[in-house]
Design brief:
It is a single chain. This protein is an alpha/beta fold. It has two domains: 4-82 and 235-324, Glutaredoxin (3-Layer(aba) Sandwich); 90-230, Glutathione S-transferase Yfyf (Class Pi), Chain A, domain 2 (Up-down Bundle). Helices cover 40% and strands 16% of the residues. The protein contains ten helices and ten strands. The protein has helices at 16-28, 44-49, 69-79, 90-104, 108-113, 126-136, 142-167, 183-198, 212-230, 240-249, and strands at 7-11, 33-36, 58-61, 64-67, 236-237, 272-277, 286-293, 297-303, 310-316, 320-324. It has a ten-stranded mixed beta sheet, sandwiched between helices. A hairpin with a 2-residue loop joins strand 3 (58-61) and strand 4 (64-67). Helix 1 (16-28) packs across helix 8 (183-198), helix 1 (16-28) packs across helix 9 and helix 4 (90-104) packs parallel to helix 8. It starts with 6 loop residues before the first strand and ends in an 8-residue tail after the last strand.
């Protein structure tokens, strides 16, 4: 079974980070295939690709596998430039970038995760809580979750306040005052959309009456997504073995690239290296031969577990660490 545009998205449907990518693909009308994953480890399909990176989603285009939604969105903008959602003016690009940083690095999503109801059925599943402890590096006991809830609610309310009386204060429909949703809207909306789905915030703190502009913005966004969904086929769903086999047999989607000789890491092309995120999921390191290193991206060559075909694993540089390793064990 073929994957449209050679894209296979590995995600699970309630993943808030996954929504960043599915929304983008839908608004662009870019057809793709998906391989649905369990909400917690192990994820045997991703292991089958030879990828140790544990966060969701990852996206393959051919035999290139892209990790981290910031990198995925940038690659989609580059590979499908006609109708791109990203800003073109420098001041708007700056707002877009600041919103990305605010929601991911600035703590908005982390605070949103602190509003997960402690009595939610998933929170009583020891496999889930153990998995999230591995992911975040902190306790996910019910006691810890209850302790963090007031703090999370306080910060998320502050986020609604900023949107209502800041970015959306003049009554604009979209963040950059565009005619339709842009990448800036995706960068801003996803954690707030998610917490409203969780229904974990008391209406005394956040409600449609208190934040009418934010709620109307989220309603418009949902309507835009539903309209876009009706105009494109549903994604093809591949089973794990089929998805891994498809990726392993595909062609690479971009040239090999070079290693910047002036990079502070001082690494050389072909050197055995490992790379991993430092903010979450940091216990899981990808290893392989260094293919490319730029200011924004590191690319490792590793072997899939099906057919031993080489794949290329792409990580961003921001909040990722890369270092040389001995040759032993460098292949996945």
């Amino acid at each position: 079974m073929a994957a449209h545009n050679d894209i296979v998205l590995f995600h699970y449907q309630f993943s808030p980070y996954g929504k960043r990518i599915t929304w983008y693909l839908t608004l662009r009308g870019i057809e793709y295939a998906q391989c649905l994953q369990p909400i917690y480890l192990p994820r045997e399909d991703i292991n089958g690709l030879g990828v140790k990176y544990r966060r969701i989603p990852i996206m393959s285009i051919g035999r290139d596998v892209y990790c981290d939604t910031r990198l995925i969105l940038r690659k989609l903008e580059e590979k499908f430039p006609n109708g791109a959602l990203g800003a073109s003016q420098p001041d708007q690009k700056a707002i877009e970038k600041l919103l990305e940083s605010w929601t991911i690095d600035g703590g908005i999503f982390m605070r949103a995760a602190q509003t997960i109801p402690p009595d939610m059925p998933l929170m009583k599943d020891p496999k889930f809580t153990k998995d999230r402890e591995d992911y975040m590096g902190r306790s996910w006991s019910q006691e810890s979750v209850r302790d963090m809830l007031p703090e999370g609610l306080t910060h998320i309310r502050d986020g609604f306040e900023f949107l209502e009386n800041g970015l959306l204060a003049d009554g604009r429909e979209w963040i950059l005052n565009t005619a339709k949703p842009s990448l800036a809207d995706i960068e801003a909306i996803w954690p707030f959309h998610w917490v409203l789905q969780l229904k974990s915030i008391p209406p005394t703190l956040v409600s449609r009456e208190k934040y009418p502009k934010v709620y109307a913005w989220i309603d418009r966004f949902d309507k835009a997504i539903k309209t876009a969904e009706r105009s494109m086929p549903k994604p093809t769903t591949l089973k794990g073995a089929d998805a891994v086999s498809y990726v392993a047999q595909a062609e690479f989607s971009e040239p090999e690239g070079e290693v910047d000789s002036n990079d502070p890491l001082g690494l050389k092309k072909g050197q055995d290296v490992e790379s991993w995120p430092v903010d979450s999921g940091f216990k899981h390191h990808d290893r392989g031969r260094l293919v490319s290193l730029t200011a924004k991206e590191v690319v490792l060559a590793a072997q899939s577990k099906i057919g031993g075909k080489e794949i290329r694993i792409h990580h961003p540089r921001w909040n990722f660490r890369t270092r040389a390793v001995s040759g032993e064990g460098a292949k996945l």
